[in-house]
Amino acid sequence: MPDTISFARGAPSLDIVDVEGLKAAAAAAFDEDAAGTTAYGTSVGYVPLRNWLAERHGVQPENVLVTNGSMQADAFLFDELVSSGDAVIVEKPTYDRTLLSLKGRGADVRMVSLASDGIDTDELRALLESGVRPTLAHIIPNFQNPAGYTLSLEKRHALLALAAEYGFTIFEDDPYVAIRFTGEQLPTMLELDEGKGNVVYASSFSKTVCPGIRVGYLVGAADTIKAIAGRATNTYISPNQVAQSIVYRFCVGGGLDRSIATVKAALAERVAALTAALDRELPEASYVAPEGGYFMWVSLPEGTDVAQLFTAAGEHGVTFVKGTDFLLEGGENTLRLAYSGTPVAQVEEGIKRLAAAYRSLPAAV
Amino acid sequence: MPDTISFARGAPSLDIVDVEGLKAAAAAAFDEDAAGTTAYGTSVGYVPLRNWLAERHGVQPENVLVTNGSMQADAFLFDELVSSGDAVIVEKPTYDRTLLSLKGRGADVRMVSLASDGIDTDELRALLESGVRPTLAHIIPNFQNPAGYTLSLEKRHALLALAAEYGFTIFEDDPYVAIRFTGEQLPTMLELDEGKGNVVYASSFSKTVCPGIRVGYLVGAADTIKAIAGRATNTYISPNQVAQSIVYRFCVGGGLDRSIATVKAALAERVAALTAALDRELPEASYVAPEGGYFMWVSLPEGTDVAQLFTAAGEHGVTFVKGTDFLLEGGENTLRLAYSGTPVAQVEEGIKRLAAAYRSLPAAV
Hints:
Chains A, B: It comes from Paraconexibacter antarcticus. Helices cover 44% and strands 15% of the residues of chain A.
């Protein structure tokens, strides 16, 4: 058992990465398309992968741009659509790097409460009716980071209606979509929008192939994609062709489907272990068990000081991310547990340590 | 023979890329360090490659940052050091993407004449004495793009003295350094500066491994590197780990040295063919034969209209980049010939076509 068990990092443990499959895909990339794999491409991405993604999403290639990881895609999109002072809607809580990135651009970040079925669309409507005019709403619809919650179909429709009525773009940030291990797949807002241009969609291969491959992508209106492709050309000429060619071979060779099956099975088992351990060791914790993805949000009784808990947890050999990191204010009794990097045995031991840390706090009853 | 022979693109032909070596390096990457290759890294780059680069440049790892190609490194450095309105020195002519990138940031771009032994340091001194206070001087010291010229040792010292006296940073942009096929290697300004912090150095593996691998790097003062690492974290978390791990194995396995030898031999042969063909077919052309790199700058008699020549060349089945693309003004009788992508047989035929296009111009005598 490691000295410190980490529930902090949203990254897969090596046992659920198909290393042999990647090695074979790399060999195929150099064998099957040596020229395309080794040469400069253009900023829209490796053409076979771009075409494959377009087909997968039922759009044209001109609607797709492949990037060096989806965070790079986010950065380009924010550069394109968000100016200093612009109102931007985000979920409360949301991904800490998104918060940082928007604050760094001087955006007027407006957090709207997140429920276990997604962003509170009534609260958002009230905010819009009060006169706030966002350029963008950043939404992580499936197995949200950090909460693990999923946006309901009803709310997907409601968001699209608000976007059309108030003229903002929905940035559908969807890296976890393929990792659903229970419940039914919902249509993306990109699909539901039917090409009306209210949605820019981002996803990545970090959770289905591996993070080190750094391949993400955007799907959106052709003019938006073209503008972002111009930014990409001026930033790096083309995204990594070797990595994209490997991903393409991994996908078409069946590696992607196999890898998704492996990841889903492992993570479902970890969630079961995590919730069982929490119920047993730390019944004060409340949570909604995620239907997919990497993360679970945990609330402890009001008055718990998560900063104190974090310090105590470190002393007990377990770590996580404080809920306060995902919020502009509040969340002092919350935390995010990532189970993507922790095999089942570590999950159980880690929750024992977390419970011991909680019991060691002066404020705990 | 292709319909159009291209002297336009600064990219290697596939025959000088070690595809089998890359394939073996990729297999080694997944075999030898599956965890490091597939996981997120940090924004400073894949640790073994960063350490290898530090040793190669005689610096500490904290002085090195690996990026997704060196143009991304340029972009970060410009974001860090160049604000709108800042004076920036560039060579006249210089790389067109650098010009675009600086103009896009609102820099006050000051071009200083380039001679066959490098930037005119007397002209630069006069500009500085006139009161211009640049934040940065962008210099491509070896086999400059577009001119193919190399900065003399004397001028390297002169530039460093000016940088120290007037307090600007030299951005030593050195992607071609390893591709010297004649003459003696000169010390980098980074080395000559002996850690005084007046130089930030950039290079890449695009010319020695392949462009599609998109691995570049910066070497500079630890505080500058740290600041840029922060920007990189917020942009893409980490550069491509798979690609860096492949490059690292390619380097330590001897592939890099073999590849450099292949490229040097091929390009030396192409330069010999290019100059012989020009002397024979187009004796009006003047040039300085490069001692390395990808490019040769060609001047035609005063009064030649390179835009007309470009059109005529297209009709004759040959293409190049107009000298005017590398300048803010002037250069109407100049062009850049890239020989990196044209095997010898194409070089000879291409120059015949270029000469025929030149003869077809109304202005030609």
